[in-house]
Amino acid sequence: MSLLDELTIEDLDDNQRELADCIGLEAYKKLVKRYAGEPITVRMPDRLTLRLRNERIFAEFNGCNYKELSKQYGLHERTIRKIISMMYDEIRNQPLEGQISFYNEEV
Question: Which of 63, 80, 81, 98 has its CA 20 to 30 A from that of 56?
Answer without folding.
Answer: 98
